[in-house]
Amino acid sequence: MDNKTVSAGAYALLALLVVSGVVAAQGSGKPPEHAASYWTAERRAAAIPRDFVIDSRGLAYIRGKSGQLIPHGHTVAALAPARGKPSGNDSNPPAVTNLSPADGATVGTTQTFSASITDNGTNDTGVKSVSFVIETPSGTTQSFNATASGDSYSVTLSFTGGIGQTWNWWVVAKDNGPKGGNTTQTDPYAFMVSDGGGSGVTDPTPDEGTVTNARWTKGGTIQTAAGRIYFEMPNNFRLRRWSGYVCSGTVVNDGSDNGRSVILTAAHCVYDDANKAFARNVLFIPDQANTNGAGTDLNCSNDPIGCWEPALGVVDVNWTTGVFPNNIPYDYAYYVVPDSDAHTPGLNSANDALDMAASAMDISFDPSDSEIATAGLPTLAVATHALGYSYSEDPNFMYCAEGLETEGAYNDWWLPHCGLSGGSSGGSWTQSQTDDLGTGPVMSVNSWGYTDQPGMAGPPLHGNDAACLFTRAKSEPLPSQPMADGAAGVIGCQSQP
Q: How many CB atoms lie within 10 A of CB 33?
């Protein structure tokens, strides 16, 4: 029997076994070596973020570490980015209108600055960059990159001085035209700050409006519960070639002492929906931001509490039967970590139970939870925090924060200005009406974005199989020995179509 026939037969067997919630052992049948020793410095350096994005045609791609777009589930090349003038001669700079606050306005200690900016006339090449410039009463200036939502650009700033004095602000917008682009700089708008203390203007902080991408410094349970996940996914159905990836995950409270811990992450960090196989060589490194090393390295012993090796993944059957983006609503999953023979110790903890060493976060599947929803809908007025270990910020723990919206045909939750970079996939979303935003509960995970604009989507964890799957993760028998490549997991729950 040739290889093509074997591959087809294996896929048919997998399809049959999905119904009963188990996965056949695929590949060579040889168990992987311990993940902690597998991830050499060279393999970690070669790993890329498993960052799912969608282009304007609705096609899915994985964004590589240098920004290249790798087709996922198809072979269609990515759209080429616009460079220079596409045709004709773009000599028109962007149009800037609707500046707010208006000239002569009085603002408080926190203020959102915004403007409408377009560059879409005949031969125009589109907006390339927008910055808002703030001039202090003493005449010094500071520039802030604005984030876009359609034609609206904004940034939220807090002021800690210059009370009762005149400040100025203006907009600088550039397009993609020839020779570096055409630039518009608006006339200065004066404004006065009504209250505050100290001096100067600072970047946004967690409680001061939109945060696009910043280092998490508030601590809380999330600091130790969240970590980076290393793993490999196959390059084809035959499972003969594998590539390394990184994601994020969070240890969640399973409410019992059952000899295991559970990590919440995104389904695309657990199961390859295109090649129909579970990840292999999975390694979880919690609180890596506080490593004694310079960054991610081979040495688990210089991380605060070490590394853990999950025994299996648990993923929704609805994720496995589709291919992204058709399975977007089910992009949640769990890794199960045994309390024994899974831990490589670190600096400060000899406890082999991950949930004890890392302090697990609560997870909410209840849309009526008073901290995350009102009348079954998300609390838009309360800032939602999306957190994760962005690959480009290694080893820092990063976050974005803003009011919640919805996006796309599947009505995923959406943070329109979030600028978390690749590697943050699977990291937790939290929402709280208190100042201690590091306590949870977890309400979603980082899932996907668009190829040509900022923003992060996350699936709600209610109205689907997320709770049922969590029960499966808490009760699934642990394997007595490592599972074969591509088979380290279970597929469960069909309570929701």
A: 10
